[in-house]
Design brief:
Blueprint: H1 14-22, H2 60-84, H3 88-120
Helix pairs in contact: 1-3, 2-3
Amino acid sequence: MAAQTSPSDCERELRPALTRGWKRRCPCCGGGPMMKGYLTVRDECPVCGEDLSHHRADDGPAYLTILIVGHLMAPLLGWVFVAFRPDPLVLVAIFATGTVALSLYLLPRLKGMIVAFQWAKRMHGFGDEDA
């Protein structure tokens, strides 16, 4: 008698899960939206019913956003200042706007990737219930 395997018993591939998380989609099916607001993760996927309430993203997305934005904007700010010597107020206005816009763009996507990573690696309750 062959044992039946459910989709939750199979290995969860990391790359498709991270891609779906970046798109703010359910890491399991990729069809349902993961977020019900800007940063609020749904308790379960409306399409496949996957329980997403186990996630523990906490400060990870904010930390990664600051890390990425800081490493992109700081060298760019130095290069623009040395190469073009713009008025300081213009420089502050442009880089403040760019920093805020990039941060607002990256934050929910990085949160989706962290939740998808946790799902793919079966962390924090995303694993089998009977294990």
